[in-house]
Amino acid sequence: MGPRIGPVGEEPQMSDKDTKAMMSTEDIPQGKASPNSQDLQRSVFYSIKFFVLCHSLLQLAQLMISGYLKSSISTVEKRFGLSSQTSGLLAAFNEVGNTALIVFVSYFGSRVHRPRLIGYGAVLVALAGLLMSLPHFISEPYRYDHASPVDMPQDFEASLCQSKTLVPDPTPAPSNSSCSSYTETQHLAVVGIMFTAQTLLGVGGVPIQPFGISYIDDFAHNSNSPLYLGILFAVTMMGPGMAYGLGGLMLRLYVDIDRMPEGGISLTSKDPRWVGAWWLGFLISAGAVALAAVPYFFFPREMPKEKHELRFWRKVLTVSDSPVSKGEDSPSEQSLQEPLEKQDGLVQIAPDLTVIQFIKVFPRVLLRTLRHPIFLLVVLSQVCMSSMVAGMATFLPKFLERQFSVTASYANLLIGGLTIPSAIIGIVVGGMLVKRLHLGPMRCGALCLLGALFCLLLSLPLFFMGCPTHQIAGITHEPGNLPGLEQFPACRGNCSCPLDDFNPICDPSTHVEYLTPCQAGCTSRVVQEALDKSQVFYANCSCVVGGGPVPAGSCDSACSHLVLPFMFLVSLGAALASLTHTPSFMLILRGVKKEDKTLAVGIQFMLLRVLAWMPSPVIHGSAIDTTCVYWAQSCGRRAVCRYYDHDLLRNRFVGLQFFFKTGSLACFALILAILRQQDKEERTQVTVSIPGLQQQQPLVSGPEKKPEEFRA
Known about the structure:
By secondary structure, this protein is mainly α. It has helices at residues 16-23, 35-42, 48-71, 73-80, 84-108, 114-138, 181-204, 208-219, 225-236, 238-250, 278-293, 311-320, 331-337, 355-370, 373-404, 408-437, 441-459, 489-492, 563-579, 581-591, 597-613, 615-625, 646-684, and strands at 505-507, 512-514, 524-529, 534-539, 550-551, 628-634, 637-644. Helix 6 (114-138) runs antiparallel to helix 8 (208-219) and helix 15 runs antiparallel to helix 16 (408-437).
């Protein structure tokens, strides 16, 4: 978390030497500055408003590139033969690099040139985005039917029924003819590059948000700082939505759009073998981050503090806020100002500590903070909620693709257009309720409890919104057993079918899907040309009633019409879960000692990364893998899953979400019970208080109890 040069509400302490270095001259008394100083102040890079604009755009681009992998996770799995567990680990590695350095970067933050360090971090993020797209350029062109010979169309004759007299029987083991040490080495190199890129993506993002927040807070006018940070957060929250929108657009394009085979391809985006241009989104996002990083190399290390309050903001504060007492900030102003410290407090244990002293004192302060029951329960509830969000953000697109037979592009557009805006609305509404109603700890706890309860209730219908897996010829449906291909001697006749081929076709009359046309006994292929696309059919199929023709591609789900109601409930649940964000944050701010406040929030974010954002994608990916009923094989190893048991997939994916929501609800219930108990204890002592003073439930236990700054 980023450092703070000075506390909120005070100007940063600068020596005369630093002031001279910054302004090239000393300030002249009576508020007048030298001509050189005035010239510098006129520069756009000495304007905190311009810094807010630049930082909003940078954080928007950074979150877009960080969230883009989640929008294309299923595509990356298909392209490089990854399991969901591996892809979940890949998504989590973004947090590994971030968490490993956040404490030390915060410690050294006050000793560095913050804008320049933000620029370096942004350049590293851009380079990580370029590195993430590198596997596309070093890999061979994607061949959606890897069993086909090179000298014929990819899915033409190779998948058809060929006589055993002409083609020998395939061996039970996957063919290793195309497997070599070079192929395996290339696969490991590709996976290693992506993991390295994700780690660098996290490392580069370390200084961006905390240093930007502290820089704005230090040099903006005290009354304008909450507005600037509100604008920053509002713009930043659009980043994940833009990532899913970008994914929706890029995945409509074929993966090898830069090296299309002669004669084009016969795939459509609905084909299960379709792989979109996942790499193109990383290039676009990296370019956006690189452009946003340029201005940071021209901002000064320190700039003159903003002297004037925005007029319209002064009117807003005058209308909406009323002071509690003379000499104190209004509750709403405090509630806005105190979160400014949320990203930049780890170094404030003691600014003058050496690195060794800092490492020694940190565990003691950490344990002291974790012993506070309210803080610990709030963090646990947020861990549960963040685990739910991390799992859904990573694998919800894949779940929609499999459960409802929608394209990856459409799934991303649904999430970016419905779920992300709903979550943003929930956060905003929660903050407005806390501010307008001046909610105290008890009511904040009650609001969190209600939000978690209704979010949990909305999850119940999701268990029933889906269909079982349609019949797939030759595949057993018991997860955990090795799927085997049943033999069809009566209908397949004398066909010799490759066991590692995948070119599904669907018999519309019986809704039965075959892995390849060969498995259905098809001997011919027909292409119907249309104005904008071509449709492939297979004919003379001995396993199909009437012999066909049957269309290429998987059978559509019978529950495709449920995708919109499903997303409506998910989005509404996301809004209710986000409603708890601000009130739970205020419970932490009001629940710990003032000197531990910034550190407590820093610890909170660190624990959320370690306990939620890092393990949750791996847990969800592992659960998804247990529902697979047919794994593709690549060089003798298990690669991507071709088919899932839809009922198991739905129950385990939604069940994990339900489990984490239940944990969050239980924590909020305990928080409310503790607050009520503390309230009863406080009322027993009210007789010794000043008559007429309304007692507010304190969250801090100890000898120095005092009324809270905001009303119940």
